[in-house]
Specification:
Blueprint lengths: L1 E4 L12 E3 L2 H8 L5 E3 L2 H34 L1 E6 L6 E6 L1 H10 L9 E2 L4 E3 L1 E10 L2 E11 L4
Parallel strand pairs: 4-9
Antiparallel strand pairs: 1-2, 1-3, 5-7, 6-8, 8-9
Length: 150
Amino acid sequence: MELLLKQNIEHLGRTGDVVEVKSGYARNYLVPRGLAVMVTKSNIAEIERHRALALIEEQNRVASLKELATKMAEASVTIEGRANAEGHLFGSVSTAQIAAALRSKGFSIEEKQVRLEQPLKEIGVFDVVVHLHATVDATVKVWVVQQKPA
């Protein structure tokens, strides 16, 4: 059965795509939930108008995220940790700690957006990538310093 998607559906298609699905999936899931409609000329025209508005909205969102990325590139965060004399941490700096430090600076970042190749286990300055969008990444300087004795 051919349907016209009204929303992006993972592993199936994007808004405005005509997809071939089994009739039970269409009848019991996609159509009742308003995720897809039958393929007609009027539905295609309506979806195209909706797709154009969504595209403009997405472009505005990406532009604001690029602006956020430039602000984040100028910022840096400092994380304290206990370390031995050689500068090796007793533990490591994780994505959760970096995300929390960025949130304290006023950036609304989730832990899953912070991309580390491996946990930071030494004192130093590191460039950490923050994934904001499929096309927008920001690089933040993370300073890992020795924790002051109490």
